[in-house]
Q: What sequence folds into this?
């Protein structure tokens, strides 16, 4: 028994030495949490997927000295309720806190300059989030708050320098948001399925609005699109915003046909199923429309040109054949006469005039035909035989 007792005593000493090593962070037991913290401190980062799916974590205090949280480091920690970030933090990786479904709020400290795609996606209990001003020069990554269905309060840097895309899809409780100044793009899917969104402010730095960016926003009644916007995607950008009643549009924006199939009515596709949309504001004036169509927008611009708006005249002169065709198709004689009165004689080429005269004759638009003939003859270059050119 003496040898056995000595053996037990030796084993006890070995075990004690191992425990001492672990407490000092010098051991190799990677499953020991205290050891993991020491390793993380030493390397100034939390490794990818290090704590993924750890349901024992309820309150997280990330120690000072940590600069980087790796990809999916705390993903699916479903019992995590709160996080305290260190002042040394600079980087939060993609999906770092995805599906932390008990997390209710996050405040990212100053000094963080990168937050990866989907970092807080599907955090279904998240109510508020604050991003630091140190993010102002960074890109706001896609899916950052994807499907955070309880999210109501969000604070972003007041200025950013990059595009703003796919940030809030399926944030069903979000009621209002002001896109940070400096964003050059309201990208695809950004506010898709934000059912409660009532107010959206777009700064005058945005140049492009992407497809499906404000789709299924069931509470949005008005939208102001600033003059800086040069193009809007035609594919379901404002699809099924059923209470949207008024849209303010720049005079000279265009639709971007991302389908690349020469969509026949891009405005109708962009605002499809916006049943209540009957008011368009352009150049400080409101116009009533039956529905949002390319033709409705063309007539608004024509009205502005006819009333002497010089920018509208310049715009209309670039598409006069289309304008005269639409006027004849709808027999808008009064508007045609007003437009011709506002156009200088050299604004319309001979070929354009002859084509418009012939088309209006073929459509039976008598008054427009006569107004065009009179306009053509106003340069005293000769007379046209109205009886011969008029074909019904």
A:
């Amino acid at each position: 028994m003496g040898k056995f007792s000595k053996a037990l005593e030796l084993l006890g000493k070995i075990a004690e030495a191992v425990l001492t090593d672990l407490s000092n962070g010098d051991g190799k037991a990677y499953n020991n949490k205290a050891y993991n913290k020491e390793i993380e401190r030493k390397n100034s980062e939390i490794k990818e997927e290090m704590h993924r799916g750890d349901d024992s974590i309820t309150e997280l205090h990330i120690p000072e000295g940590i600069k980087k949280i790796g990809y999916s480091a705390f993903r699916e920690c479903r019992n995590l309720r709160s996080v305290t970030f260190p002042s040394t933090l600079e980087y939060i990786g993609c999906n770092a806190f995805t599906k932390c479904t008990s997390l209710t709020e996050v405040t990212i400290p100053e000094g963080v300059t990168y937050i990866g795609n989907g970092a807080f996606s599907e955090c279904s209990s998240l109510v508020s989030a604050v991003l630091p001003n140190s993010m102002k020069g960074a890109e706001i990554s896609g899916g950052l708050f994807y499907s955070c269905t309880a999210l109501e309060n969000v604070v972003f840097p007041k200025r950013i320098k990059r595009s703003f895309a796919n940030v809030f899809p399926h944030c069903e409780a979000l009621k209002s948001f002001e896109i940070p100044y400096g964003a050059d793009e309201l990208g695809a899917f950004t506010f898709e399925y934000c059912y409660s969104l009532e107010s959206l402010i777009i700064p005058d730095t945005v140049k492009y609005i992407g497809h499906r960016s404000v789709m299924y926003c069931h509470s949005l009644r008005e939208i102001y699109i600033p003059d800086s916007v040069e193009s809007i995607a035609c594919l379901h950008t404002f699809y099924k915003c059923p209470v949207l009643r008024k849209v303010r549009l720049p005079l000279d924006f265009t639709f971007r046909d991302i389908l690349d199939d020469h969509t026949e009515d891009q405005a109708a596709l962009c605002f499809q199923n916006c049943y209540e949309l009957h008011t368009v504001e352009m150049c400080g004036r409101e116009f009533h429309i039956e529905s949002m169509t390319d033709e409705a927008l063309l007539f608004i611009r024509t009205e502005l040109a006819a009333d002497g708006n010089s920018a509208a005249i310049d715009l209309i002169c670039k598409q006069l054949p289309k304008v005269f065709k639409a006027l004849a198709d709808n027999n808008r004689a009064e508007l045609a006469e007003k437009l011709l009165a506002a156009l200088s004689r050299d604004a319309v080429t001979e070929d354009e005039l002859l084509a418009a005269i012939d088309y209006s004759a073929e459509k039976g638009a008598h008054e427009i035909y006569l107004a065009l003939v009179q306009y053509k003859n106003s340069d005293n270059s000769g007379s046209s035989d109205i009886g011969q050119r008029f074909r019904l």
Q: What stands out?
A: Residues 13-35, 380-392 have pLDDT under 50 and may be disordered. The radius of gyration is 32 Å. The first strand starts at residue 45 and ends at 46.
